[in-house]
Amino acid sequence: MKDWFYHVGGSLSPDDPTYIKRQADDDLYQALLGGELCYVLNSPQTGKSSLKRKTRQRLENKGIKCVTINLTEISQNIVNRKTWETRLFDNLVKDFNSWENNQKKAGDQEQNFLSFSQKLNNLVEQTLIKTVTEKIVIFVDDIEAVYQLSFDVDDFFIWIINTHKKSNQELTFCLLGVRQFHDLTKDKFETNLQLSKKIFLSGFTLDEAQPLAKGLEGKISNPRKVLEAIINLTGGQPFLTQKLCYIVMEEGTSLTNFEGKEEILVIGLAQSRIIEDWEDQDQPEHLKIIRCYLLNNDVVARRLLKLYKNILQEGQITVIRNWEQQQLKLSGLVIEKDNQLIPYNWIYQQVFTEEWVQEQLDNICPYQQQFRDWLHSNKSQLLLLSGEQLEEAWQWSKGKNINQDEFEFLGLGKVTEIEKSQAIKNTQIQQNINKIFSAIFNDKVKKNIIKQVFLWAGNQANLIPIVCQIIISFEPLIKEQKESEVVERLIKKNIIEDWENGLASEHLTSVLNNLVNQETQESRKARLKLYKKILQRRVNFDGSREQIELLETEIVVINKGKLEVANLIYRQVFNTPWIEKQLNTITEKNSQSKSNQKPLILSILALTIFVLLGIPYITKTNFKNPSLLSANCLARNLDKNLEENIKNLQTLVNQSSETVDEKCQILLNELTLISESISLVDNNNIFKALDKLCQIPANSDNLTEAKALIFRWYYADSGRYPKTYIWRGDILEYIEKNPQCSALKNFNPI
Are 707 and 749 in contact (CB under 8 A)? Predict the structure, then answer.
């Protein structure tokens, strides 16, 4: 077998031994034979041109005249529409005149005043219909070439549609390319084109690809097994299948030891000859063509990359045939199977990985077109980004060296969205609070109460219901005393004092995390210092990234051009001493990190000396430090939820030595009691739940959490705990009379 048996790249001649006949061959041949207008739109290097040449040969053997128009050749180095039309017209005339030598040449036409479509019509009517008795098929290849032209060529596609309609099946067309019609023409023509016959060009099946096994005969012991392994990796993609066959054939006799290990052999060759350093090994180009298709346009690229990333993560997505899905299919990276989009093959997944996709997304600006439009509009506020687009752009810009105009574009969008959100919240909250309190308090008291709610909670949607519930629960007390004093006392008692276990602990913990969770210690420190300034004194809003990101945490708000703390609860919980403690913690961690470097350096130095002197260096392994085990069991880890704590403690106890650390067992038992009590209340067994909590001793750190739970049950709305409102008096009486609950007897809701 000669080395050139396989054909990697380019179109195959009709008689090439490696030409693989597929279902598309018969579909296209029969459709054109029947006079149907056909189109073959598929990804690059899937055999479209080879299919065209083979089909043309079959049609000509039937006596049908065929012409090919290659739009890539016609569109090269074109500067204007007139030149393009002339070149295409001359191409047609040349082919038509080759059938009838006595017909007029292109230069004989004296109809320069006619439009391009009229000239084409005359050519068809005067040259073809009169002189050619057989049917005619015109193949229009590489239709995507017109996408790069600086002018539209809709007239040409309109002419194709109209000519086909009038020709009574005597003249028909076949369009081939890698672009959707609505990328090439105006929408009103797309429907007509889509009504034509679509030819699906799928990858090779193993049975279809059997002719390729001939090139491996005499080179390896089991050509069919190797071909099967190749198809499994390429998914039957024509270019990759031919290339991998060629690589196996090229390795030849060196593969004799791989009998029975064909899959390992093919994977190894694909890895070393195609995937590794693929940019250097991609000859002839294939993978680079796919990359170019994906990244050709920044705006489109991001949409396609995100869709492809989703498919990689999920394995498949449902076909909805929208624009993005069609474009991604035309890239060749994915195929449709059983109404699902899936990655085409294993090789593509190894080259265009999720990491590669993310790297491209990080490099492509997500707001380029919108930013240009905003600049051209003289920075109109109507063209600012919002919603998901804004958030994506904002996150992408972090750490990027963007110019001042770009930051202004993004920053204004963020501030505008924050202010709109605040305004909407204020209106909704005002209406809801007014409605709630109108049924309870008179207008004067209601007005004062609402003022206190906004003073303490601001416009925080998660905080206001808690404050309102507390106020409603103590309605008689508020009516008897000065509203502001009672509200202040209630909020301090139930929310601010011991806030980690108070009624608003979940919300305040979320605010804390938003405030301090930063990528680096330095950025965390900078944010805390900025917040400290605002806490001490209102700060002018300058639109900096630091200020905007602090605004996003909602711990501060903009008020008349200045930043201020959003409410009194935040001001008193996250106060100056709290900030100083956080800053000191950061400083201590930095100091500890630096001090830890010295022992590490000494250890490395010691190890180096031992190695150089040939002295064995002994390390201690599997050593359990009892004090460390106890330290892990001193208190609940507040960074994790209750069930995670219980699970981790159980694991720690199970993995410890024969004698279980007493502190671990105590903490595990107490957290289990708390968990069981929560489940009991969820099932309206309030007294059994109290029995569980009463088993927690007075000296336990978990007693505070037990009290916090009782607070929640005492004040709970009728949504989650429908009976606790009725049981309020019973809760207090039960704790008072039950001897086991002595540790909880000082429970006081106010």
Answer: no
Residues 337 and 188 in one domain: no
DSSP annotation of 11 reads P
The pLDDT value given to residue 288: 96
CA 408 to chain centre: 26
pLDDT digit string (tens) for 590-640? 665 555 554 544 444 444 433 343 433 333 333 333 333 444 565 555 445
Q: 620: phi > 0 → left, psi -120 to 50 → alpha, else beta; which?
A: beta
- Whether a cis peptide bond, with omega within 30° of 0, leads into 749 is no
495 DSSP assignment: I
Tens digits of per-residue pLDDT, 274-302? 999 999 999 999 999 999 999 988 889 99
Average model confidence (pLDDT) across the chain: 82
Torsion of CA 654, 655, 657, 659, to 10 degrees: -20
The pair of three-digit structure tokens given for residue 174, joined into one six-digit string: 């076949």
Q: Total domain count for the chain?
A: 5
Residue 558: other Cβ atoms inside 10 A: 15
Q: Are residues 333 and 480 in the same domain?
A: no
**Residue 13 sits in which domain range?**
1-21+203-267
Q: Alpha-carbon distance 87 to 76, whole Å?
A: 10
| SS3 category, 112 | coil
Please answer whether residues 345 and 240 qualify as being in contact, where contact means their C-beta atoms are separated by less than 8 angstroms: yes
- Separation of alpha carbons 306 and 366, rounded Å: 11
The reply to whether 589 falls in a domain is no
Structure tokens at 428: 């909704």
Nearest-5° Cα angle at 388, 300 to 504? 160
Is residue 439 within 8 A of residue 552, CB to CB? The reply is no
469 and 509 part of one domain = yes
**Pairwise CA distance, residues 443 & 432, whole Å:** 15
What the block records as the tokens of 703 is 């007693």
Per the model's pLDDT, the better-predicted residue between 639 and 496 turns out to be 496
Both 58 and 192 in one domain: the answer is: yes
Q: What is the pTM of this model?
A: 0.66
Q: Report the amino acid identity of residue 391.
A: E
Residues 117 and 174 in one domain: yes
287-295 vs 323-331: helix crossing angle, rounded to 10: 160
- Domain-embedded: residue 381: no
Residue 183 binned pLDDT confidence (cut-offs 50, 70, 90)? low
Query: What backbone torsions phi and psi does residue 171 show, to the nearest 5 degrees?
Result: -130, 125
309, containing H or E segment: helix 298-314
Is the Cα dihedral 632, 633, 637, 640 positive or negative? positive
Give the bridge partners for 341, in sequence order. Answer: 317, 336
The domain boundary, picked from 573, 592, 621, lies at 573
CB contact set of 235 (below 8 Å; sequence gap of 6+):
203, 335, 344, 345, 346
CA distances in angstroms from 530 to 394, 422, 472, 488, listed in the order given: 20, 21, 36, 27
What are the tokens at 418? 């924050």
Task: Check residue 702 and give left, alpha or beta (phi > 0: left; psi -120 to 50: alpha).
Answer: alpha
Contact present, 158 and 121 (Cβ < 8 Å) = no
* Rounded CA separation 569/316 (Å): 48
Question: Same domain for 310 and 359?
Answer: yes
> Which tokens go with 699?
């000296």
Where do we find the tokens 């279809």? 208
